[in-house]
Write the structure tokens for this entry.
Amino acid sequence: MESVVIALTVLLCVVPRALEAAGNAPQVTCGTLVKLQHVKTGVRLHSHEVTYGSGSGQQSVTGNAGSDDVNSYWSVSGPKEANSSPCKRGEPIKCNGKIRLRHSTTNRHLHSHHFQSPLSNNQEVSAYGDKEHSDTGDNWQVVCSGKVWRKDTKVQLKHVDTDKYLYVQGATFGHPIAGQFEVSAFGSSSPDTHWKAMEGVFIKPTKK
């Protein structure tokens, strides 16, 4: 009996991983609540009620090394575009499709614009607006291979208005967010612009 339980436990651990490796990992859909991990550094995309002391003065966006911080959750929704229909809950996010990411605890959207970032002098990435207020600076294109965005697969987030990629290189802040990494937008694709969807609540894709 003990050997059967051990075998079943191993099966339950191995099969989901095998399915994910075979292209059956959970899809990222509209309404998904997710943490995004920077592939090269391992930090999670993060925000908090701390504003930049330069540039736009908007809410700062950083990379946090901790995996269990509630301030690293982002909600996936459709883009802010004129005459576009809302992204329906459970609608799969297609590769090269456009999205917005709304910070779960402050309700501000991942945003970029023509301000310099404070450490690297790249383009600043901030958190902006709220549930009711958003603009095209909140739109990001999901650059990935395959048909849809899936958990644990590499993607790049390209800012639609400025054609720059969400980027982390390694510069870190001092007080009051000591040790957190600068997140900025960079003009070209590189190993520093790759991300993965990791922990989260993945909404089951709706059937057409």
Remarks:
- Residues 1-22 have pLDDT under 50 and may be disordered.
